[in-house]
Amino acid sequence: MMDCDLLLSWMTHTGQGSWARFRSAVEELAGRDADLSNLRRSLRIVLSDLGFTDFFIEDSQQWRMLPPVLGGLSGQDGAAVLCGSRTPILVETLRTAAGSHGCEICVEKPQDCPTLIRMAGGADQLSEVAKQAGTSFEPNLARVLAQELTPIPEMLENPRKEAAPLNWKVRSFDFAACTWVDTLLPNSACEFTPRYGRPKYFLHRRRGRLLRASKRESLYAAAMFKGVRLIGYDPTAKELKVPLFAPLPESYSRAACLCLGRPTEVSDGQITYCGVPPDVAAVLAVAAGQPHPGVGSPAGTWR
After folding, report:
1. What is the mean pLDDT of residues 109-138?
2. Is the predicted pLDDT of residue 93 greater than 70, yes or no?
3. What are phi and psi of 173, to 5 degrees?
4. Beta sheet of 53-55, edge-to-edge order
5. Where are the beta strands (DSSP E) in the chain?
6. SS3 sequence, 213-238?
7. Which pLDDT score, from 0 to 100, does residue 289 have?
8. Residue 292 main-chain phi, psi, to 5 deg
9. Hey, CA dihedral for 208, 158, 290, 271, is it positive or negative?
């Protein structure tokens, strides 16, 4: 099993780097029989979702570590999780500070994920612990992140328009088939792939206009125009669900995951974000161009 804490320590020490460097580091640390493609993908997702790292900054091939923050969990009262860059010295300082202020620390070690450092205590206690450790404290990190999102409808008001790349292979996402197909469909998320290099993603609109977006953003923008429901929510279980083919855009996914400070759960073709309070679920859904979660279909249904 790969030592994800060692990877996080290297990334913290380095601060930032290229996607190629990240790929090489994962290859060095992974076991001989590891599925490197899936491992890199899962690590990129979890490091982004749990607020450790930003990847592909401003559409580049670069990643950057985030500042350390003790984030209060909206899905669990009196609890916080350590996000961002971290060193053994910071962790030890937090342990000492937690003992001084009557807070409890526990660690969890999910598969293919750095150790999660969680802390229990009152908001005032957690704030003092963060202050003593020299890091910041945000009482309700998920709600802050959700409020800072740029809604997809707003993003499309001032889109980045680009001409179709010449001689690139094109695919579009077909919601009826729930897969990418080798053609250019109207009002669809589309992918242009060069012979060498990474693909670019767009929303295809009237008169052949291409509006630049990330892969996930393009899917949700297309779903909005087509009236396809992707997000379901169960307010009793506080579970927000999306189909596996349409994970939430990166910043949305981070806000959802940091409600409880744990990675997503994947099963039966669905991604489940646990511990998401109704107010955060509402902000995420509406910002993504989806119906308010209190209206219509329950969690786990779309079309």
Report:
1. 95
2. yes
3. -90, 125
4. 16-18, 62-65, 53-55
5. 16-18, 53-55, 62-65, 69-72, 79-83, 104-108, 116-120, 136-138, 160-162, 169-174, 179-181, 189-193, 200-204, 210-213, 232-234, 239-243, 265-267, 270-274
6. ECHHHHHHHHHHHHCCCCCEEECCCC
7. 96
8. -55, 135
9. positive
